[in-house]
Specification:
By secondary structure, the protein is mostly helical. The protein has helices spanning about 1-25, 35-55, 70-85, 85-90, 95-115, 125-140, 150-175; strands at about 175, 185. The chain has a two-stranded antiparallel ribbon. Helix 1 (about 1-25) packs antiparallel against helix 7 (about 150-175), helix 3 packs antiparallel against helix 5 (about 95-115) and helix 5 (about 95-115) runs parallel beside helix 7. The longest helix is centred in the first third of the chain and has 26 residues, at about 1-25.
Length: about 190
């Protein structure tokens, strides 16, 4: 139980960092795409490691972290590419984040459906954030925008929404059983 609470708190802290990073890109798109790639790459490495470690926790519903191993591996690969192949990645950044958001939104969509089956009242919030993140991911994937500042802002918005989506999922679905009784603890 203590391990799950610790992982949940670390996960929430990283999610807040994800949201703050997304907001920075949204409001200050001129940070520079090279710097942006390296910062995003470093964050994706850390985020990937957190996702993989959260996959191995004991959660009564097994909903919030069920896809985290695969998503963690993808995050680590994308992060490594963004750090070590920056010159090739700058034009590809919105596309990568778009794919990441679409995959994560699709998985969270499934989580929302399963949360509804478990009777979790706030499953609609998970569904709503998944849909919004999926729309932003699709926009980034198909890149209808030509101006770099708009692309960077869309990436920032997408990252921010993905962080918000993950926060909603963890807050609403991670539960554990207290000792031998069936009392559920948030």
């Amino acid at each position: 139980m203590k391990n799950l609470k610790r992982v949940k708190n670390i996960y929430l802290t990283l999610t807040v960092c994800f949201i703050v990073g997304g907001l920075m890109l949204l409001f200050w798109p001129g940070l520079g795409l090279d710097v942006l790639c390296k910062i995003c790459g470093a964050f994706l490495l850390i985020y990937g490691l957190a996702k993989i470690s959260s996959y191995f926790t004991k959660d009564i519903f097994q909903l919030a972290f069920q896809f985290d191993f695969g998503l963690g591996v993808v995050s680590i690969i994308l992060g490594s590419v963004m750090i070590f192949r920056t010159e090739h990645i700058v034009g590809f950044l919105a596309f990568c984040i778009g794919i990441f958001l679409l995959v994560d939104a699709a998985l969270k969509f499934q989580t929302a459906i399963e949360a509804k089956r478990f009777g979790i009242e706030r499953w609609k919030w998970i569904l709503f954030t998944a849909i919004v993140a999926g729309v932003i991911g699709a926009l980034l994937l198909f890149n209808p925008f030509k101006a770099t500042n708009i692309i960077v802002r869309m990436v920032g918005l997408g990252i921010c929404l993905d962080g918000l989506m993950n926060m909603v999922v963890v807050i609403n679905t991670v539960r554990t059983v207290k000792s031998s009784s069936i009392e559920i603890i948030d």
